[in-house]
Protein 1
Amino acid sequence: MGNGRSRRLSLSTSTPAERLDEAVDRLLTGRQLAVGPELAPLVDAASVVRSALGPLPAGSRFEARLASRLASHGPVGDLVAAIGDATRRELRHPGRILVTGAVSSAAVGLGVTLLALRRGARRHAAADHQPAHR
Amino acid sequence: MNDALPRWDPASPQGDPDRDDVLAAQADRAAFDVLYRRYLDRVYGYAFYQLRDHHDAEDATERTFLAALHALPEFRHEGASFRAWLFRIAHNTIINARRSRFRLRTEPLPDGLERIAPNADPAGLVLAADETRRVLRAVAELPDDRRQVVLLRFVDGLSSREIGQVMDRSEGAARVLLHRALRDLAARL
C-alpha cells in the first residue's frame, strides 16, 4: 500500500513544494514517506520542528474564565439579534453607517433650521398684527 | 495534538469536520462550547508562539473566541472550513496585538513548555528544553509569513489549503512558503 501511495504521489505531484507538502502531511499523521535527497534535509527539519513545538495547553483558570465570558456573551448577542437583520447587514458595512449617519444628521439639521425659520416668520407675522398700543 | 485534529477533505461529501458542531452552535449559542473546548489550546498555542507572552496570548485568545462567537451566525461553509475561519480571526487579532505592542520577545523560554511532561526525567527535560529553545529561536528568526506558515502547519495542524485561507494566499503560495521556511530551518538547525 505504501509503495502504491508513493507511486501515486510521484505521479500526482510535480513541484518540490508539493512533494514536501505531501511529506509533511504524512509526518503530521505519523506516516513515512521516502523523499529524494533534495527534500530529505527539509523533512528532517520538519520532524525536529514538529517534536519541539509541542502542545501548549491554556491554563485551566483562563479556560474557565473565558468559558464563563462566552456563556454570558448572550445579552450582547441577543441585543444584536433584536435590532434585526437589516441593521446587522449595516453593521457589517461600517462605511454605510457613517454615510447614513451623516445624511440623517444633515436632514435633522435642515429640519430644525426650517422649523426655526418658520417659527421666526410666524412670530414676526404675529408681531406685525399686534396693536401698536397695548 | 495534531493527530487528534481531523483532516479536511474539501472533496468529501461531509466536507468540514466541524460542520455539524458549527450548525448546532448557530442554532443554539450554548453549543459553541464544543468548538471552544476543541480549539482553545490550538488558538492559545498559536497566539503564544507568536506573542511569546502568556498574558498577551490569553488576551488574543479571548478576543478571538469572542469575535468568533459574535460572528458565528454569519459563517457559511462556502469553501472554507470553520477552523480556517477561526484561525483567520486569530491571525488578524494577533497581527493587531503585535502592531499595538510593537515588540516581539525572543529570549525567554516560554514557561508553558515545561507543562508538556511534568513527570518526565529531569535530564531529559533539560535536553528537551534546550532543543525547544534552539528550534524556537530558529522559528522566531524566520520572516513573518514563513513563521506563520510553520506555526499553523506544525502547531495547529492546518493544511496548506487552510493556511492559504487564513493568510489570504493561494494554496500553492502557502506550499511555497512552507518549502522556503523549512529550507531556512534546515540551514539553521
Note: Confidence is low (pLDDT under 50) at residues 1-13, 111-120 of chain B.
Protein 2
Amino acid sequence: MSNFEKYQSIIKESFSYAGDVEELEYQAIAEWDSVGHMQLMAALEDAFSIELDVDDIIEFSSFKKGITILAKYNVVI
Amino acid sequence: MDTKLHFDINGIKDCQRNRHPLLFVDRIFDVIPGKTASGVKCFSYNEWFFPAHFDDEPNVPGFIQVESLVQTFIMSFLSKEELRGKKTNFLGINNVKFKRKIVPGETLTIHATLETFRRGIAIGSAVSFVGDEPACSADFVVAVPDVLDQFKPKVVA
C-alpha cells in the first residue's frame, strides 16, 4: 500500500467516511470535528511513526493541507 | 518509583468540577498522576436516590455506578498540576458490565487505569469491587475541552 492509499484509508476509517476524501476539509462533515481531528492526528502519528507539532495540528485543516504538513516529517504522500 | 497521592473530599473538589448531588467519590487514594487512581464510595441509605430506586428494594442505579467509576478515572489525570480544576466531558463509554447489586451500607472500591492522554483526550478503564466481589467495570474516553480546544484547526471564514 502506498503512502497515498494509507493516508486515504486512515481518513476514511477515522471518520467512517466512504466519500471522496481528497476534497475533505475540517468541519465539512460532522465526523471531522475537534474530537475527530484529535483521533485523526493520533491515527496518523501511529501509522507513520511521527509526532506532530502543535502548530501543524492546528494547520492541518484539509486533506490537501495534510499532504504538505506530512511532507515536513518526511512522509511523502 | 512513583509517589502515590491521596485526596480527601476537598482535594477531590480541587481537582474535578463535579459537586453534590453529582459528586460520588468520597476518597481517592494511590494516585500516580498520568497512570492510575483508586477511589472509595460509601453508600448509606441517606443517598438521595435510594428511596426512589426502589422503595421496596433500595440499590444503586447503574448510572451512578458508572459515574463513580469515571470520577475515579478522571483523577488519574486531573491530579496532574496543570490539569487540576478543569472540566471534563464524556466522549465514549464502552464494555460496561454490572456484576452485582449494591445496597445501602456497602462500600465500593474502584481502581482506574489511564492508557493514554493525548491532546485533551483520555482513554482508559475502571473496575470496582464490594469487598472482593466484582461490581462494575467500563472503558472510557473522556475529553478535557480546555486542552482539546488548543489543538483545533483554524477555520477560515
Note: The CA atoms of residues 54 and 146 of chain B lie 39 Å apart.
Protein 3
Amino acid sequence: MASITIKNLTKKYGNTIAVKDLNLQIKDKEFFVFLGPSGCGKTTTLFAIAGLVKIDAGEIWIGDELVTSIEQGVFKPPQQREVSMVFQDYAIYPHMTVFDNIAFPLRIRNVEKDEIWKRVEKTAELLGISSLLNRKPRQLSGGQRQRVALGRAIVRRPKVFLMDEPLANLDAKLRVKMRTELKKLQLDLRTTTIYVTHDQVEAMTMADRIMVQRDGIVEQIGTPDELYNHPSNLFVASFIGSPEMNFIECALAKEREGLCLDAKEFKILLPAKILPKLRNSIGEQVIMGIRPEDLYESGSVDGILQGNVLRMTVDLVEPVGPYLLLHLRCGQISLVATVKETNVKTGQEVIMEMNLSKIHIFDKKTGKAIT
Amino acid sequence: MFLLPLWTDLTTSFKDLNDVIYTVPVQPPRSPTIEPLLSAFNIMARPLLNSLAFTVAATILSCLLGSINGYALTKIKFRGANIMFLLFSIGIFLPYQAVLVPLVLTMSRLGLYNNLVGLILTHTTYGITITTLLFRNFYGLIPDSLIMAAKTDGAGTWTIYRRIMLPLSLLPFVVAAVLQFTSIWNDFLFGVTLARGSEAMPASVALANLKGTTEFNWNIQMAGALWYALPILIIYLVLGKYLIRGYMAGAIKG
Amino acid sequence: MRSPFSKGFTRENIVNLLFVLPSLILVGYFVYALIGWNVVVSVSDWKPASLTPSYNFAGFGQYVKLFQDPVFLTSLTNNIILILLFVPTSLALGLFLAILLDSKVRGEGIFRSIYLLPFSLSYVITATLWAWMYNPDIGVINTLSRAIGLGFLKSGWVGDPNIALGCVVLAIVWQFSGYTMLLFSAGIKSIPDSQIMAAEVDGAKGFNLYRRVVIPQLKTPALSAFVVLMIFALKVFDFIYVLTGGGPGYSTYVLPLMMFRETFSSTQFAYGAAIATLLFLLALVIVLPYLYLSSRRERD
C-alpha cells in the first residue's frame, strides 16, 4: 500500500512561507500532479515527501508508515524511505556508465550481482536504452539521459515515484512523446507517482488528479475534468486551459423573472438552473468567465441553449492549425473565441453567442466560484 | 593547531632575548618589548622599500600587458593565437634555474644588474605568462557579439579595447594584481641572483640574510619575518577572496 | 579561420600586431632565447671562475660529469624522495580537508582563509618560521613535546641528516595543503546538488556517498594540483635555501640548490647550466602532456 498522507505541512525559508498548512491524501497507484507557477511550493512539497528537506510543522505518511512528524519528532532519512526521484536535470553521474548509473541504487543495497544484471537489463529494455548500457552520459542526447534517470528510478521498484519537472529540458516534440510514454510506464508499473510541473497541458493529459498550488497554498484538488469544468476560483480557472478563459467584469442584477449579468456593452440573461446559487450575490460585482471554445458566431452551432448576443468587432484572426482564434473587441471588453472556421475578416463586425451552460461566475472580491 | 607556526612568530617578535631562551615559544612574552621589531625594521627598511617599489611597478605592468594579450588572444582572431598561448603557458611552469645564468649576463650587459629596473623587467616578463592566462580566461567569457556590434558601429581594435574590454575588466585586474603582487613580493630566487647589493635588494633576501647573520637572535628574525609578511597579510585580509580566485585559475608558479 | 593577416598589411593588421608585439618580444626573449642560451652555455667551454663567457663548443662533457658526480646523484635522489613524499601527502591532506569543509557549512569561509594563509606567504617567511620551530633547544616542537610529556619525541629535526628531508617535506606540506584543499573544494562544489540528492534517495550516505559519487568526479582538480605540486617539488629552492641550506651534509640538497651553488658559489657556469637544462627538460616532461590534455578538454 503506497498511499501518501500529508497533514498540516508547513515549510518556511527564513521569513518566507513556502508551503502553508498543506493537507493532502494521495491514493495508491495514483498518478498525482502538483501543478502551479514557479515558487508555489510544489517542489518543496515533493522534497519534503522524499525527506530531502526538513519541515517546520506537520506529518507525512508513506503507506502506513509515519516518515516525518514534527510533533512526534520522527524523521526518516531519504535513504530509508523507499521512494525514488527523477530530477529536472536528471542528476545522472557523469563518471559512471549508463549501466552503473542504473545499477547504483541496487549496488548500494548490496543486491547480488546476478540479480543486478537481470534487473538493469530488463529496465533498459523497457526504456529502449539497452544499446546504450556501456556509454557514458556525455555521449548521450537529452532524451537518452532522461531515460537513464528514469531507469535508475524504476530499477529499485520503490513505493513511490517522485518526479520534479522531468520533461522540462526536452524539446517540444520529444516532450509530447515522452508524456505518453511516461503515462504508459506508470500504468504498467502500477506505482504511485507524484509529478511536479508548471505546464498545465502536461498536468491535464497525464494526471489522475491534480493539486494546484500558488504561493504555498492549495487552490484546488481534483481530477482534470473537475478542474477544467468546475474551477473553484479565479486562479485555477485562468491557470488551466489554453487559450485562457475569458473574464468579464459585470454586475449581477435583477431582470424580469430572473437575473442577468449586466455590463456596459451587453446584458446576458442567466438560465434558471443556476439562479439559486446566485441568490446571495444579487447587486454585487462579479466576474464572468467563459472559455474560448464556448463562444460561437451567432447561428453557427445548432442545438445549444441560445443565449443573448454580443456585438463585437474582429481585431485579428489567428490560424492555429486545426482551428482559428478570433480576437474580438467591444468597447472595453476583449475576448478570444475558438472556432473551426469562419468567414469574417479583421475589422468586420460579428455577432457572438455563448454556451450558457458553461458560464462560470466568480465573486469579484474573493475570486471564489459561485456557480 | 594549524596556525601554530604563525602564532609563535607573533609572540616571539615581542620578546626580549632572555624571554626567547627561557620561555616556551607558544607562551606570550613575559615582558613584551618592541625592541626586536625596531631592530629588524632598521635592517630591513631599505629592502622593504625596494620590494614595494619594484613589486608595484611590475604588478601594474604585467597586468596591463596580460590584459592586452588576453584581449588579443580571444578577440582578435589571428593565426598564431593558439601557439602563442601555448608558448606562454609553458612559461608559467618554467623552472627559473633554466634561464638564470643568461639572465644574469643579460642584466649586467644592460647595466641593470643590482638595479630596481632590472627586477621590474624580470618580474614583469615572467608575470605576463600568468596574467595572460587569467585575462584570456576572463575575456573568453565575454560574448563575441559584443565585439561584432562594436565593429559594425565603427570601432577599431584599440577603441574596442579601451571602451569595451577595459571597463569590463575590473574583476580580472584585481585578481591579477593581487596574485602578481603576492608572487613578486614573495619571490626570492631573482632577488638573490640579481640584486644582492643594497640598492635593489628585496626584502626576501634581506630576511634570509637576517637568518644567517643573527643566528641566535630568533626574536629579531621573527620580527623581520613579521615585517616582511605584513603587506601580504593586509592584502590577504582585505582582498583575500580575489587571491583565492587567482589560485583557482589553474596553475600557479610555486 | 582565415586570419586578417593574410590580407596583407592593412592599418588594422598593423595595430593588431602592435598589440601583442611587446609581450611577444619580452617573453620570447626572456623565456625562450634565454633557455636556448643556457643550453649553449652548458655545452660551452666557459672556464670556471672566469667572468667573461666563452662559447666554443665543448661537447656534452658537463652532462657526463653530472651523472658521475655523487652530489648530483644525491640531489636527484633527494628530489625524487621529496616528490614521492610531498605530492601524495599534499593531495591526500587537501582532499581530506576539502571533504571536512564540505560537511560543516558554518564558518566555512573562515576555515578556508586560515588554511590558505600559509600558501600566500613567501617561502622565505615560512622557512624562517619552521627553522625556528625545529630548533632543537628552544624551538616550539621540542619544547612543546617536553611540556606535554612526550619528551622522548625530541630530536635534532633538521639537524639530523636522517630525517631532515622529512622535516622539510612536513613543512612544505603544511604550506601547500591549503592549495590542494582549495582545488578539491571547488571541484566538490561544482557537483550539482541534484546528484547528491539523487544519491541520497538511492540509499547512499556519508562515506559511501563520497567514495562513489564525489571523489570519482574530482579527477580534473586532482590533475591540476598534481602538476602544480610536481613542478614545485622539482624547482623548490627558496625554501630549502633558507631552512637548511642543503644540509646537514647533503641530506636536503636538491637539484635547484645544486645548480645555484655550482653556478654562483663555485662559478662552474657550464656545469650549472647543464643542471638547469636538465631541470627544464624534466619540467617539460610533466607540463607538456598536461597542457595538451587541457587544451583538448577545452575544445570539447
Note: Chain C touches chain B through 94 residues (CB under 8 Å).
Protein 4
Amino acid sequence: MTAVSTTVLSSSLRAIVGQTQERILVAEKEVASGRRADLGLWLGGGVREAVSLRRDLAELNRLRDTNAAATVRLEGTQAALQAELKTAQSFTETLLTARDNPQSRDLVAAMARDHLASLIANANTTSGGAYFFGGVNSGEAPLADYFSDPASAARSSVEAAFLAEFGFSFASAAAYDIPAPAMETFLAGPFAALFDAPGWSADWSRASDEPLRIRISESETAEIGVTANADGFRKLASAYAALTEFGAGAVNDQAFRAVIDAALSAIGEGVADLSGAAAKLGAVEERVSVSSERLERRITLLSARSDDLEGVDPYEASTRLTALQTQLETAYALTARLQGLSLLNYLQP
Amino acid sequence: MSLTLGLDIASSSLRASAANAAVASRNVANAGDPSASRKIASMAWTPGGGVRLAAVTRAADASLHEKLLSATSSEARLSVMSRALERLSEATGAVDDEGSPAALAGKLRDALQTYADAPGDALRGQAVVTAAHDLARSLNSASAATQTARAEADAKIAEGVARVNELLADFAELNAAIVTGSRAGRDMTADMDRRDAVLKSMAEQIDIRTMTRADGDMAIFTAGGLTLFATTPRTLSFTPTPLFTAATAGAPVYVDGVPATQGGPLAIGGGAIAGHVELRDALAPVYQSQLDEMARGLIALFRESDVSATPSQPDAAGLFTYGGAPAIPTAGAASLGLAADIRVADRADPARGGDPSRIRDGGVSNPGDPAFVANPSGAAGYSTRLLALIDGFEAPAAFDPAAQLGDTASLLEFAASSVGWFEGQRQTAEGNLEFVSAQAQRVGEAHANAVGVNLDDELARLLEIERAYQASAKLLSSIDSMYGALFQAIR
C-alpha cells in the first residue's frame, strides 16, 4: 500500500508557495526597472561582455565630449587664421595703391601697426586657459606684445639691427639718404634674419614647434600642426613690422617703395603658407567630425546591444508576473482545500 | 476447546487491541514530526490460539535513506558556495555596482582621455588622481573582502568540525543503546528515529555513508571511505586560522588523523564543510590572484622608463605604487597580495604634497631625476605620455595563467573577464543548487512517503481496532453470560 505522508502533503505546498513568492519578487523588480534583477546570475560568464560594453560606452561618450571640445578649439583656430588671411589680402590691395602714392605712407604705417597688433592678438587666441597657437606649450601666450613699454625684445632687436646696418637710428634725418638698394639689402638680410626660425623663437615666440596631439577615436589621434611659429605668421609679422618701423618717416620715395615691395612679397608668402595651414586644419576638422559621427553610430549600436543583454522584455516580464500570481493563488486555494480533506471531518464522534 | 480458553483468547485480543491502539496513537502524535517514522505493531499467535504483541517495528527504507543523506550533503555544499559567492559579489561590486575594479579601470582611462584633451588643466589632472585613488581603493577592498570571506569560511569549517564531533558523540550513545536494547528485545524504534535524525544533521556538514550490522548496529564512513564511527566514534580535528592574507594557506581537516580536504579520493566531497573548504582553498584564492594580477598590470602600465639618450636605469613604478617600489613586480608568486598593497604614489597626489602634472610629464617615481621626465620643459599641451597610457589600457599584456583567465589580454579585458569568471562560478553554483535542491526535495518526499505517517490511514486503523475491541468485549460478555447460565444450572 502506498500512502502519502501527512507532513509531505502540507510541506510540499509550503515549499511551492515559498518558491513562487521568491519568483514574484524577481519578476516585480524586473517589471519595475526593465532590467534583469540579478544580472550576474542571469548572464553568468556572459557578464564579461556586459562589463566590456558598459566600459566601451563610457569611453565613446567621453570621446564624443572631448571631440566636441576639440571642435570648438579647431573652429577657433580656423577663425583666427581666416581673419588673418582676410586682413592680409585686403592689405595687399592697399599696399599696391600706396606704392605709387608715397604721400599715403603715414596711413599705411598706421594700418600696418594695427595689423601687427591684431596678428599678435590672433596668435594669442585662447580658450579655457589654453592658447591655440602655442603647440604643446599651450600654457603661455605664444607672442609677446610688440608695442609694450618698455620696448619688447622684438622691437629692440629690429631697432638694433637697423642701427648696426646704417650706423644711425631710423628716426634721425640721415635716414632720408638711404638708397633703395641699401634698404633692400637690409630688409632681405639682417632684418629678414630676425624672422628666421631661431631669431623668431629668441625674440618673438614662446610657442613650441611640437604640435598638440589629441585623441579623436578609440584608435586615432590627430595633430593640430599650426602654431605661432608657422612660416605664415613670421612672414606677415615681418611685413607688418617693416611697414610699421620703416614705412613712415624720413626715407625717400625709392626706399619707401623698396619697403613696400619687400612687405608685399612677404605678405604673399605668408598668405600662401597660412592658406596651406588653414587647409590642413580643415582636414583635421573634417576628421574630427567624421569620427564624431562614427562615435554616435557606435554609441547607438552598443547601447542597443547593452539593452539586449541587460534589459528585460517588459511584456514577457509582466506576463510572467501574472502567471506567477495565478500560481500562488492556486497554491493558496489548494492549501485551504487540503486542510478540509481529513478523515477526521467525516467521522462521527 | 473450553470456555476458559475462549475467555483467554478474547482477553488477549483486548490486550492486543490496546497495544495496537497505543501504537496508532503514537503514530498520530508524531504525525507532525518529519523525522519520526511510522511504527508498526507485529502480532503473534499464542500457543492457545490467542494473539499478543510480538514487536514494534518501524517502516524503513535503507536505500532511500542513504539517497536522502547524499542529497542533503550535496545541497548543503552548494548552498554554502552559492551564498558565499553572492555575498562576495555584493562586497566586490561585481556587475551592477559602478564601484567594481573593472568599472573603475574604465573610468580611470576616461579621466586620462579628458586630461589628454587639455593637459594644461590642473583640475583634470586632479580628476585622474581621484580616479586612480578610487581604483586602488576598490582593489584594496575587494582583496580585503576576499580574505574576509576566506576567514569566515575557515571559522565555519571549525564550527562544522565541532558539530560533527558532537553529533558523533550523540550517535555513539544512541547506537550503544540500540544495540543493547535490540539484544534484549526492547522496542528501540524511537531511538532509531533519533539516530537517523542525527545522521541527517551530520550529512549537512559532511558527506557520509552508513553500514548496518547485526542488532541494529551501524558504522559511518565518509563518502571517501574514512571511518567516522565503527564501535567507537573517531574525531575530526581542525586548527582554525584567525587571520587570512593572500599568502595564508588554510589548515586541513583531519578525519581520524588523515588529512581530508586536500583533494584526492579520500577528500570530503559534500556537506557544508566541503563547500567552505572549496571557497577557502580554491575559489577565493583564484579570485585573489585575479585581483593581484590586475594590480600588477596597473603598476606595470603606469611604470616610468629612463628616457635619456642612453638609458641606464631600470623602469620604476609610477602613478601606482606598492611596498616593493620602485621595482616593477613580476608575474606569479611575486604579485601575491599586490591588490591589498597597491596605492597611488604620493608624488602625484596634491593632497599629499604631490603634483598631478607628473602623470603627464613623467617623474612620479623620482621628480629629481631628469632621466624619467619626458616633458622637461613642462609644456602645458604635452599629451604624448597620456595618450600612450590610454593606449596601454587596451594593449595586450602578459598575465599569470594561474589566475585562470588566459595568459594574454589587455588590462581592461582582463578586468572584465574577472567579473565574467566570478559570475560564471556563481551561476554554475546557483544552477547546480537549484537542481540538487529539487532532487533533495523529491528524495525527501519519497522517503517521507515510504516511512512517514498518514493521519487518515491511522484513523482508519483506529476504527478497525475499535471494532475489534468491541467484538472482543462482546465475546467476553457472551462467554460471561454462558458461564452465568452454567453456574445457574449447577446451583
Note: The mean pLDDT of chain B is 90.
